[in-house]
Amino acid sequence: SITATTAVSGGNIASDGGGTVTARGVCWSSTSQTPTTSDSKTTDGSGTGSFTSNITGLSPGTEYYIRAYATNSAGTSYGNMVSFPTSQGSGSGIIFNPALTYGTVTDFDGNSYKTIQIGVKKGTADNLNTTGEKAIQVWMAQNLRTTNYNDGTDIPLVTDNTEWINLTTPGYCWYNNGTGLDKEAYGALYNWYAVSTGKLWPTGYHMPTDVQWHQLVLFCDPGALLGTYESLTAGIKLRETGTTHWTSDEYGATNESGLTALPGGYRYDELGNFNHLGGKGYWWSSTEVQGPSGSISAWHREMNSAGWVSRLNFGKKNGFSVRCVLD
């Protein structure tokens, strides 16, 4: 078991070599491939037999070298060296782009999020496909999971399906009401009424507009079009690599942008049920739009594992993920 800052290891002392084992454990180093007890170590009892070592205080995204040791009156002996990397941290096993430099931001609850600076193609409100001069956006590289507004008041948690579909006031939920959910990785799902309060995001941030989402997509695909199927390839550069959180990676995601899009699924506004965790991600924009039935909805973005980015305008009662942008 390995996280960003901890690991579980251990060993087995088969023989004491003729002298009572007075100390045993594991020792490790990030710089030496032959760590000794002069480096970091655990002390896990004495005698022969198996033992478990709980290692703490590791650094995220770091390769460590570790081996077991046993000490008796004759000295200290060591086992074979093994190595392991810790995860990047600031997320439950989230795979960020190691070639990029991330910042951090903290919400009212004390949750810490990675942030990434992205140079986007500057567009205009009436011609979002304009390319040329680059603008800079700083995006959160993780899905929001705050349970309080930035003024300290609670965001209503809504678990009941009937209550969810009838809600016209702010609310949030966890996918499948949190059952078995890695909340740190996938984040929470919010209806648009929570978004419209203007109080969801950390101080100094805001909800991205439809324009800002399109600028981001243009950065990854200069040929992106302002339509339902905005880009067939941009998602490859926007989403997390591998299949730790996505159910498939058939087109080889690169996360070149550093955005590290994660598939939190959504909560359906007509039934209140949950869909597509691991398969698709849905993120609100702050921009309202007249829907096809005459109702007012809001633009959002959908990404799938194949790399598609879709620009859609579903109803405000849906529960989607949230990413924030620096003011």
Task: Describe the structure in your own words.
By secondary structure, the protein is mainly beta. A hairpin with a 5-residue loop joins β8 and β9. The radius of gyration is 24 Å and the shape is elongated.
List keywords for this structure.
2 domains, single chain, Immunoglobulin-like, mainly beta, 20 strands, 327 residues
Q: Which bin fits the share of residues in helices?
A: under 10%
Structural class: mainly beta
As residue ranges, the low-confidence spans are 121-134
Number of domains: 2
Query: What count of helical segments does DSSP give?
Result: 5
Q: What is the element string, with H for helices and E for strands?
A: EEEEEEEEEEHEHEHEHEHEEEEEE
Q: What spatial form do the alpha-carbon principal axes imply?
A: elongated
Mean pLDDT: 89
**Strand coverage percent:** 25-35%
C-alpha-based Rg, rounded: 24 Å
Largest sheet: 5 strands, antiparallel
Through-space gap between termini = 39 Å
